[in-house]
Amino acid sequence: MPHPLRKLLPATDDSLASFAAVLAGELPGQWSSEYHPDRGGSTDHGELTAEVWDLDQVAAALAEHSLDHCAVLTRRADGTRLFVMDRNDDGFLISAMAPNDLPTEAYRGVREPDGIAVVANPFRAAKHVSLRLLPRYEQALAQVRDNAARLSAQATDQQERVVLTWSGEDIVTARPDRADIAKALTEHGFVSDEARNLFVLSDGDSAQVAASVRAVGHRLSALGLGVLLSRPTGRPAPDITHAQPPARPVPASHRTR
Known about the structure:
Largest sheet: 5 strands, antiparallel
Helix content: 25-40%
Number of domains: 2
Distance between the termini: 27 Å
Strand order of the largest sheet: 2-4-5-6-7
Radius of gyration: 28 Å
Strand content: 15-25%
Order of helices and strands: EHEHHEEEEEHEEHEEHE
Structural class: alpha+beta
Keywords: Coiled coil
Shape: rod-shaped
């Protein structure tokens, strides 16, 4: 039930739906328009308003009024979305919507690309969206993506690692807590040493050692782990120059909102 102090924005006809449909055709690129009609007062379309990227007049209107209908424009090329709602006095309010494929922390410190108020003329509105709102959105999105990349790099630096260490003529590593890591080690020649709480790869033929280290490195990388080979100063490392983990496939860039 809407808050008793909030006013109800009128939806006397389908003018918002018509406006949004024409606006979609006037914006640069290919856009689609989806109208979200009144649901009988049982909802404020909260699943959409929660994604509105605005802390100015659009946010204020949503806080003050109960929203009964709205429209969402989506750019087909990259999933950019615009939220369209009635303005209380006249015309419409248009705001960008935040993509949901980026971590919330990445938005910290980034100024919202606040929405705009436009008259009920989709042709004039398209110019304002193109010249004002979309450039602000692209600038803010670039900052968020940069933050997300930094967060990803930090996560990589803090990645869980398996350290393989020379101990005399053996290569040893601490007994892992994870069963899948222990399985990978044993499958590639490491033997559990219960007394020392270690997994041990006995030093034999150098080519065989290098092959084992390469193989276990690839397997652990596939499990999302880093591998570090630590050796005493002056001891040559086994020839594992080609032991780089296989490159992971890069997912196609897309945004779901």
